[in-house]
Amino acid sequence: MNGPVVVLVGPMGVGKSTVGSLLAERLGCGYRDTDDDIVAEQGRSIADIFVDEGEPVFRAIEKRAVHTALAEHGGVLALGGGSVLDEDTRALLASHRVVYLSMDVEEAVRRTGLNTARPLLAVNPRRQWRELMEARRHLYTEVAHAVVPTDGRTPEEVTQAVLDAL
Ligand code: S3P
C-alpha cells in the first residue's frame, strides 16, 4: 500500500498531533499534519481563513491539502477533525490504514475548554461539541480500520494502543 503508514482521524483536541509525533518517533518515520500544511500554504491561521472566507472555502482548501498529503507522505499523517465531512476524502481513505482516536463529549470539553483559536468551538463549547460529535462520529467510524479510545489515557498509552492496532 502506498501513502502514509497510518492516518489519524478524530475530533479536535483528541491528541492527533501529540500521538502522531510519538508514533512517528516509535516507527522511525516522518510526521505530517494537514492543518500545518494549510497554514504554511496559506500564510495565515486556520481561524483567519474561517473568518476571512468562511467554512466552505476552508473545506475546499482542506480537501486539496488532504488529498495531496495522502498521495505524497509516507509516514504518520494526522488529518484535521473535519476532513471526513468530505465524501471523496472518505472514499479515498478506504485504501489507507486509518485509526480513529475517539473521546467522549465531556472529555472533549475538558481538554479544549473555551478554545477560541478553534473557530467551531467559539460560542458554546459543550453544545457545539455535542453537535459535532453527533454529526461526525459515524463518519470517523466509517473510515476507520481501528478505533482507539483516548479517555483517561496518556499520549504514551494511546500511542502504544495505536501500534498494537496496526
Ligand atoms: C476542525 C478541526 C481543526 C481545524 C479546523 C476545523 C474541525 O483541526 O482543521 O479548526 O472541523 O473539526 P484539528 O482537528 O487538528 O484541531
From TrEMBL:
<feature type="binding site">
    <location>
        <position position="35"/>
    </location>
    <ligand>
        <name>substrate</name>
    </ligand>
</feature>
<feature type="binding site">
    <location>
        <position position="81"/>
    </location>
    <ligand>
        <name>substrate</name>
    </ligand>
</feature>
<feature type="binding site">
    <location>
        <position position="153"/>
    </location>
    <ligand>
        <name>ATP</name>
    </ligand>
</feature>
<comment type="similarity">
    <text>Belongs to the sugar phosphate cyclases superfamily. Dehydroquinate synthase family.</text>
</comment>
<comment type="subunit">
    <text>Monomer.</text>
</comment>
<comment type="function">
    <text>Catalyzes the specific phosphorylation of the 3-hydroxyl group of shikimic acid using ATP as a cosubstrate.</text>
</comment>
<feature type="binding site">
    <location>
        <position position="118"/>
    </location>
    <ligand>
        <name>ATP</name>
    </ligand>
</feature>
<comment type="similarity">
    <text>Belongs to the shikimate kinase family.</text>
</comment>
<feature type="binding site">
    <location>
        <begin position="13"/>
        <end position="18"/>
    </location>
    <ligand>
        <name>ATP</name>
    </ligand>
</feature>
<feature type="binding site">
    <location>
        <position position="59"/>
    </location>
    <ligand>
        <name>substrate</name>
    </ligand>
</feature>
<feature type="binding site">
    <location>
        <position position="17"/>
    </location>
    <ligand>
        <name>Mg(2+)</name>
    </ligand>
</feature>
<comment type="function">
    <text>Catalyzes the conversion of 3-deoxy-D-arabino-heptulosonate 7-phosphate (DAHP) to dehydroquinate (DHQ).</text>
</comment>
<protein>
    <recommendedName>
        <fullName>Multifunctional fusion protein</fullName>
    </recommendedName>
</protein>
<feature type="binding site">
    <location>
        <position position="136"/>
    </location>
    <ligand>
        <name>substrate</name>
    </ligand>
</feature>
